[in-house]
Design a protein that fits this description.
The protein is mainly β and 114 residues long. The chain has no helices and ten strands. 0% of the residues lie in helices and 54% in strands. A four-stranded antiparallel β-sheet has the order 1-2-9-5, with no helix packed on it. A four-stranded antiparallel β-sheet has the order 6-7-4-10, with no helix packed on it. It starts with 15 loop residues before the first strand and ends with a strand.
């Protein structure tokens, strides 16, 4: 399968951006990744990335973040070891997901800092 294109990151307060991508996809499953970047001029101390899946996608396993799902609305916050991001630097979290039908790109991918 061809990897899905990445939607344009949406800047959040303090210059935090999140770029969602589908790393791999098969039948009814996929691997996703999100790169969180500090576009500001000061270190970020904590981040939360949110998005809404357009279909029936669900996350079955997540690493390098803490997931709080609410239906199609996903919220992932940093772990204790990857919450501080220096200006111009990035961190990434990933997940395994499942779906039926179409694995469409999420809407309203955004990053906020406390």
């Amino acid at each position: 399968p061809t990897p899905t294109p990445t939607p344009t990151p949406t800047p959040g307060p303090g210059g935090c951006t999140a770029a969602y991508r589908v790393v791999n996809q098969w039948g009814d499953g996929f691997i996703g990744g999100v790169i969180v970047t500090n576009r500001g001029t000061a270190p970020m101390n904590g981040w939360t990335v949110t998005w809404t899946f357009p279909g029936n996608q669900r996350i079955t396993n997540l690493w390098n973040g803490v997931l709080t799902p609410n239906g199609a609305n996903m919220s992932v916050r940093n772990q204790s070891y990857n919450g501080t991001i220096q200006p111009g630097a990035s961190t990434e979290f990933g997940f395994q997901g499942a779906f039926s039908g179409t694995n469409g790109l999420p809407t309203a991918v955004s990053c906020t800092t406390p």
